Structure formats: structure tokens, C-alpha cells
Amino acid sequence: MLKVSNLRVAYGKVNALKGISLEVHRGEVVTLIGSNGAGKSTLLKTISGLVRPKTGSITFEGEEITKASPDAIVGRGIAHVPEGRRIFTNLTVMENLKAGAYLRKDKEQLQTDYEEMFSLFPILKERKEQMAGTLSGGEQQMLALCRALLSKPKLIILDEPSLGLAPLIVDLVFDVIEKVRQTGITILLVEQNAHLALEIAQRAYVLETGEIKLSGTSESLLKDERVIEAYLG
Amino acid sequence: MLLLQFILIGISIGSVYALIALGTVLIYKATRVINFAQGELVMIGAFIGYTSLVSWGLPIFIALPVTLLLSGVIGYLAERFVLRRIAHGPLISVIMVTLGLSIFLKGGVTGVWGTSMYSFPKIFPESTINLLGIKLPQVYFWSMVVAVIIFVLFVFFFKYTDLGLAMRGVADNQKAAASLGVNVFSVVGLSWVFSGIVAALGGILLANISLLNINMSDVGLKAFPVVILGGFDSLLGAVIGGLVIGVIESVAGGYLATIVSGAIDQVVAFAILLIILLIKPQGLFGTKEVERL
Ligand SMILES: Nc1ncnc2c1ncn2[C@@H]1O[C@H](COP(=O)(O)OP(=O)(O)O)[C@@H](O)[C@H]1O
Ligand SMILES: [Mg+2]
């Protein structure tokens, strides 16, 4: 479904990605783990068109999207929940959700979809008219997730959804990711919490200083000594 | 009675300031850029209006849409071919570019229309209108009406349309908006189109109040105290700021001009600006900083 080949990205003189290749197949949950500064967010941003690569290619459903604009990429069915959530703090919760459906053509279907989101996250319904900036960190994460889901994506890419959340909330967020998986949406998940990530994913890639160091099924990586030492210890 | 008259005139002139400031706020909201060329857009709008009415001899109901359309196009071109090229540069450079744009536009107008005074054809009846017992020239009254209509249209646009929502999203967080499929450049371009259009409306009203000349662009300088007073990102702030500055200017000019020699009315706006910057830097209705793409 998604194929990244030999991707190189640099910020000025800093080489953030040094030739990355990976694949995500339809219906999979694939996770990307790696420590801070490894280049995980850069990779996701490049996929969603927010950062331009120096070389390499990205294809989605067999079509080249390397040079496509972010809105065109969303239009093709890739939704990105960025690190730090990036909800619209000065817009209400409801307006944030509406913005998520910006590119949707089937506007008459939306009311049902909002209700579906509200049944997943009753708290968002309660806070519908509140400024999104007043939500707690966990609620903001759920809003960001709902907002991305409302674009009806085929592939959703999540950048550290557990970052800065209390353990209880993290569990809740991962429950929802599991539910999203069950609806058949393909997921590419970036996580620092390798335990959680490997539990939910079928396959994983380990990224270190801009290079893929390891890859394989989650089971095999959970047993890999290097992974245990560096990320699970 | 004299005071009421000064206040009403202040509100009318303030409505025009508000229109001009609305244009500044639109661009600021979408991009965090303070457009120093807003006054030039006002002046160009007025000159285009003059040309379509006088040189092309169009009736007002055709000349007005034509003028607004062309002014919107100028706003669009400025964004598309000047600002977009450095959109990712440091904010200060972008702002400096708008300053360059203002000089360029002023030069262009001088080239086409020269520096002489033009008397704008009166588009409102010469008769006066009776408001609260004060006889007011019609143009003053219509300035208020136009400002109110435009303000209401913008409020409606931002609250009830998808595109308006997208624009607010871009204003709030460009990256997040892009990641939801909003074409940020189109939205920013649109804010310039709107800005050009309201500027032209302001220009036409101003030209009906006074004479038309290259120096009309100085009114752009009035937009700064207005938006600083109202808060750079607030539409309501622009309107209230415009009215407050207009009224204070008119009243101060009316009473003090006889006591203090010189153009006291032109100083008050900037005196207010300094005071506001000292006590409430984000303006009366402004909000905190927001992130840019
Ligand atoms: N906008 C930027 N400008 C310059 N360097 C950046 C920028 N964003 C990230 N980097 C650098 O690129 C590298 C990878 O960062 P990032 O992709 O955010 O890593 P991760 O998400 O894995 O923590 C880091 O060295 C980081 O400092
Ligand atoms: Mg990151």
C-alpha cells in the first residue's frame, strides 16, 4: 500500500534520513520505534508532504506521491496525526472535527460520522462547544485522532500518540487505535513506548540516527536482544 | 450638538479605518504577516474606481464590481508572485517585503496616474441625511453602512462556511491545517484577495469624502493604531478599534485644533498606539501567538 524507497532528507547540513526504505501493506499495523532525534517524525512528515526529500520515492497504492502537496496526499487517503497533536486551540471541539472533514465530498454522511466519534469519545460531545485549547492532553489527543479519522483515511499515520499522557489515558488511546485497526484502516504508528507499540503492531522497524537498523515481525523484535536492551529494558 | 456631530463624523471616518484594518487583520490572521502595503491597496482601489467611472465611463453598478474584482486580482498577484516566494523565510523578511511592495505599488500608481489631485465622481447623493438631529453628508452615513455589511459578511463567512473554517484553521496552525488537506497557499491567497477588495471599498469611500491623490495611501498608517488597539487577529477588534480611533481623532481635531496649532488629529492616533503598546501589547481583543508553517 505504502512504499518508501531510499528516502533521504536533510535540514540544511543535518542529514535526518539517510536512505530509508520501508513498506506498509493494506490492513497492517506497522510501528516505527527509535529514540529521540532518530528521524521518526521527519519520515512521517515526508510521507504526508510537509517535508521535501532530497532523493528517494514514496508511492501510495502504486502511485507516486513524492512530490504531491500535503492536501493532495490527504485527498488520496493518508491522514497524519502529528506529534504534539496540533489541534486548533482557538477553534471549538466541533469546529476541529468539521475541519477534519474538510475534503469530504459526502457531507450528508457527516452527521452520522460525528455521532460515531462521539460514541467513541463521549467526553468530546460534552465539550463540543468548548475551545479545543482548554481540553486536557488526553482529550486533545483523542480530538486529533477523531479529526484525522473524519477524513475517512485508508492509511492513518500516528506520531507518538502516547507522548505526555498519563498511563491510564495512554491505555485508552491504544484501545481506540485497536478499534481503528478493526475497522480496516491501515496504521503506521511511531512510538517511543516500544512495549505498547510492539504489542499492537504486526511488524516493526527500528530507526536510529536516520537509518533503519532492524526490522521484522513484532514477535521477533520483542525477543531481539538489541531491542530489549535499547528499547524495552 | 457640536460634540455629537464630531462623534458621528468620527464614527463614519472610523468605519473606513475599520474596513482598511479588516484587510490588515485578514492577512495577519492567515499568515502572521503585517502588511505594510495595505494603504497602497486602498489607494489603488480608489484609482481603479476613478478610472472605471471616469475614463471608461462605466455606470456605478458596473464600475463597482469591476473595481472590486480588479483590486482582488491585485491582492492575489501580490501574494502569488511576491509573498509566496519567501513564505518560508523569516517573518521579519516577509514583513519587509510588504514594505517593498508598498513602494513598488506607489511607484506604479505614480507612473499610471501621476501625482495630481483627482476629484472623484460623487457616487452618493449630494443631499444630507438627518441622523440623531445632525445633518450628515450621505457619504458619511453610507460608510458606516458599508463597514457594518462587510463586517457581518466576514463573520458569517468565518462561522458558517467550510472555506471560512479552513481559513481560521490556517490562522490557528498552518501545519495542522495542511495535514487535514487544506491547501494553505490557496487560503492565504484568498485572504489577500479579500484584503484587496475591502481596501478598494475603503478607498472609494475615502475618495468620496476627500480628494483622490497618491498620498491617500497614508491612510494605511492609520490601520496600525487601529489593529494594535483592536488586536491584530480580531475582526471585531478592527471594527471597534477603527471606530475608537475615528471618534477620538474627530473630537480631538474638532476641539483641540483651535487651541493647539498644527494637525493635532493626526497625532492622537499614534499617541493612543503608544499607550496601548505599553499597557496591553496584544490589543483589546487579540490572542496569543500562533504557529506558522
Ligand atoms: N525543522 C528542523 N530543522 C532542523 N533540524 C531538524 C528539524 N526537525 C528535526 N530536525 C533534526 O532532525 C533529526 C530528526 O528529528 P525528528 O524527525 O524530529 O526525530 P524523532 O521524531 O525521531 O525524535 C534531529 O536531529 C532533529 O534535531
Ligand atoms: Mg518525533
Describe the protein.
The complex is a heterodimer of chains A (233) and B (293). With 233 residues, chain A is an alpha/beta fold. Chain A contains ten helices and ten strands. Chain A has helices at 40-47, 70-76, 93-100, 110-120, 122-126, 137-149, 167-182, 194-200, 218-223, 225-232; strands at 2-11, 14-24, 29-33, 55-60, 63-64, 78-81, 155-159, 186-191, 203-208, 211-217. Chain A has a six-stranded mixed sheet with strand order 6-7-8-3-9-10, sandwiched between helices. A four-stranded antiparallel sheet of chain A has the order 2-1-4-5, covered by helices on one side. Chain A starts with a strand and ends with a helix. The mean pLDDT of chain A is 93. In chain B, helix 1 (2-31) packs parallel to helix 5 (138-160). In chain B, 71% of the residues lie in helices and 3% in strands. Chain B has a domain at 16-219. In chain B, strands 1-2 form a two-stranded antiparallel ribbon. Chain B has helices spanning 2-31, 38-55, 60-81, 91-113, 138-160, 162-172, 174-179, 184-209, 219-230, 235-256, 264-279; strands at 128-131, 134-137. In chain B, strand 1 and strand 2 form a beta hairpin. Chain B is mostly helical. Chain A binds chain B through residues 48-50, 69-71, 74-75, 79-80, 82, 86-91, 95, 98-100, 102-103, 147-148, 151, and chain B through 162, 165-166, 168-169, 171-173, 175-184, 287, 290. Adenosine-5'-diphosphate (ADP) is lined by residues 11, 14, 16, 34, 36-42 of chain A.
